Amino acid sequence: MEISENIKRYKEELGEKVSLVAISKTKPNSDLLEAYEGGQRLFGENKIQEMAEKWESLPKDIEWHMVGHVQRNKVKYMAPFVSLIHAVDSLKLLKEINKEAEKNERTISCLLQIKIAEEESKFGLDAEEAKEILASEEFSELKNIQVKGLMGMATFSDDEAKVRGEFDYLKSVYEDFKKKQTQFEILSMGMSGDYKIAVSCGSNMVRIGSAIFGERNYN
Ligand SMILES: *Cc1c(COP(=O)(O)O)cnc(C)c1O
Question: Which first-to-last residue range defines the signal peptide (predicted)?
Answer without folding.
Answer: none
